[in-house]
Structures are given as C-alpha cells and as structure tokens.
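Memo to structure team: turn this sequence into structure tokens by end of day. - J.P.
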Amino acid sequence: GIEWAVEAGDIADAASLRDWLAAMLADGSGFCDAVFLAQAHRAASAGDDVGLREIAELAAAFVPSRERQLDTTTQGRGFIDIARSAWACEGLDNMVAACGGVIVYPVAVGLVSAAHAIPVAPTVHAFLHAVVSNWISAGARLVPLGQTDSQRILAAIEVDVVSIAKRALESSVVVDDQQIVV
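Reply from structure team:
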C-alpha cells in the first residue's frame, strides 16, 4: 500500500508519511494484525485449539489482496520455521497444527510468543513497533527521506504505537453466523 500512496501523491514528505502511518496503525492493517496476534496468543496460551483455528482462519480471510496474502503467509511460515530452527520449544508444533492450514504473519508471531511464554502485551507492542519501522524504511526509500527524518517519524509515532497496542489488547473478536466484529 505504501508504494501506491507515494505514487498517488498521498505521501510526499515526512509529515504526510507520518499521517499515513498513523492511519494505517489506527484504522488499517496495523490495528487488525495486532488484534489477531493478541487473540492467537491468548488462544494458544490457553490451549484453545478450536479458538486458535477460528482466529487463524479469520485472520487469513481478512487479508485484502492476493499479493498481500502471499506476502503474509510466506512471512508467517518463515517466522515459524526460523523459530523452530533457532528457538525450538515444546508445544509450538501442536499450536501450528491446531491452526489447520495457512498461518498469516501476525498469527505466527502470536503462536511463537505464546509457545515461549512471552507475555502478550510486550509482544503486541514490539510487533507494532517493528511494523512501523518497516513502513518507515520503505517510505524513506520511496519518498525519499533521510535517516534523521525517519528517526523523527519513528519517535513521533511511538505514542500511536502504544495507543494502538493498548486498543488491540482490549479488543475482542466475535464470530457468528451473522457478524464478524474486530
């Protein structure tokens, strides 16, 4: 999305990149991914295989495009494979199996952090901080921006990261025949 936003002229400088980041965090994939990460972590930590499968399926269904689906599932699988190789732990394979199929990146982060008993709150915060850092890196190359502007944006957006992490941790996912609420 950031490439399109730069091409469309929506992002042209540090201020417009900061605004775009805030919107993506609050109302876009940043918030949604953080909710799915938190819910996957909670279900995995509780041994709720049915809930974990539902979250994994819903998170995969929320991916808006084929390109993003390929990207997030490749990242998810890669993250799990690296975690297995470098930081193997008991229970991770069962959590992965409980998902029953495709695992998107935020769900993978939730599984691995739960398997390692890393608390959900710092995991969500670190995840959002990493996502924003990656977006800033892409924006710095596309606009282009220098390192100082990039670091200023990162410092300024940290307030939003904290707020969105808190909101995501307080959110719930309800799935029924009629409605999906995130």
